[in-house]
Specification:
alpha/beta, single chain, binds 4'-deoxy-4'-aminopyridoxal-5'-phosphate, 15 helices
Length: 403
């Protein structure tokens, strides 16, 4: 062989790699991060709100005073100190019966999803998921060569009747993947009443539930409803992360698994990464032990609530007639539905030219639908920038409508 062209590699890829494509969000990041662009894309927390000096001192002590453990290998399941702290964090959300022994520390919430896919999905298996759903979960399920069947939502989250129909159509589905609280991307929350119904339906059908809950603590109006895992212990895998309540740069998340499954999860994680970063785990443990982390969550909540309000009033004031959107009571995202005839994907280059970015709805469906939707993030831009972004966006929409 004299040289290897791109085509030679294409022929060699494993089957599971062939369907992999760049996520629209990733592709947008380089454009959206240019300073002149108002980015309503992405999902970055407002890290500038952290007390960075104090975090820096904490990290310094972690290296200097505890370096022989924090810079060493650790165990696959994650440190017991952190798993104990994670149980305290979950207790705040209402999960009061978790044992540190059933917690597996992961590299962000993303690895939690990947581990569950490794454990349960064979090629061709069906996963049920809200439509729209988290783009990173779609990537994981696609890499596992699974098929995603979407279940419709409304303003109260997943529609129980639609779930029943989806189960009837795919009786061998492996699990329901759901983000019941402050959903990404739709910004809606599964109501109290529906939580019980969804759990009953899954229990009756013998369907496992993967509950993804990165946003539950970022509530703007009182406490969020109790997580599904607080209501049922069996058959529910609870995944969360410190990415939105502390810092995504540390890449620390976790799974709370039914006891019987925990060992297989650890084995799958060891095969994948050996062990989560001891330094990152030490940082989160120190943060939760020595710093006012509950206060910090309140700070994030306040900032995001103000920004949500700014985004919603800008949408009310500036969007063309016929546009609708969700009104999230927590989290980071608003989901907008465009007037008849507009195509969020086709409009994107014109939006970027007008210096505003969003994520077209198509990224959040496995089946290519979502052209009349877009996800708008409100955690990163200031209220003034959010309004300016909506002004630019509505200008592009008006132009497209006039075409
Ligand atoms: N699940 C959902 C629903 C998310 O929105 C995200 C992050 N955007 C993740 C999982 C992944 O979290 P992490 O950044 O901790 O990997």
């Amino acid at each position: 062989m004299t040289g290897t062209t791109q085509d030679d590699y294409t022929d060699r890829y494993a089957r599971r790699v062939r369907g992999m494509t760049t996520s629209e969000i990733r592709a947008l990041f380089s454009v959206a991060s240019r300073p002149e662009v108002v980015s309503l894309a992405g999902g970055s927390p407002y890290i500038a709100a952290l007390p960075l000096d104090a975090v820096g001192e904490m990290l310094n002590r972690l290296a200097v005073d505890h370096g022989t453990t924090s810079l060493q290998y650790g165990i696959g399941q994650g440190t017991v100190e952190l798993r104990e702290r994670i149980c305290e964090v979950m207790a705040l959300s209402g999960i009061t019966n978790a044992s540190p022994d059933d917690v597996v520390v992961t590299v962000g919430g993303q690895q939690a999803l990947d581990l569950l896919a490794r454990l349960f999905l064979d090629p061709g298996d069906v996963v049920l998921a809200e439509g729209p759903t988290y783009v990173g979960a779609l990537g994981v399920f696609q890499a596992a060569q699974a098929q995603v069947r979407h279940v419709a939502m409304d303003d109260e989250g997943l529609i129980p009747e639609a779930l029943e129909e989806a189960i009837a159509a795919s009786p061998r589905a492996k699990f329901l993947y759901t983000i019941p609280t402050f959903q990404n991307p739709a910004g809606v929350t599964l109501s109290e009443e529906r939580r019980e119904r969804v759990l009953d339906i899954c229990e009756r059908a013998g369907l496992l539930v993967v509950e993804d809950d990165p946003y539950g603590m970022l509530s703007f109006e009182g406490d969020a409803p109790l997580p599904l895992r607080a209501r049922r212990r069996d058959g529910v895998f609870y995944c969360s992360t410190f990415s939105k309540t502390f810092a995504p740069g540390l890449r620390v998340g976790w799974i709370l698994a039914p006891h019987a499954v925990r060992e297989k999860l650890v084995l799958a994680s060891e095969a994948n990464i050996l062990c989560p970063s001891a330094f990152a785990q030490g940082a989160v443990t120190q943060y939760l032990t020595t710093m006012p982390w509950r206060e910090q969550i309140k700070v994030y909540r306040e900032i995001y609530r103000e920004r949500r309000d700014a985004l919603l009033s800008a949408l009310t004031d500036l969007m063309p007639a016929g546009t609708t959107w969700t009104r999230p009571t927590g989290g980071l995202f608003v989901w907008a539905t465009l007037p008849e005839g507009l195509d969020s994907k086709a409009m994107m280059p014109r939006a970027v030219a007008a210096r505003v970015a969003y994520v077209p709805g198509t990224g959040f469906y496995a089946d290519g639908t979502g052209r009349s939707n877009m996800r708008l993030n409100f955690s990163f831009a200031t209220p003034e920038r959010l309004r300016e972004g909506v002004r630019r966006l509505s200008g592009v929409m008006e132009q497209d409508l006039a075409m």
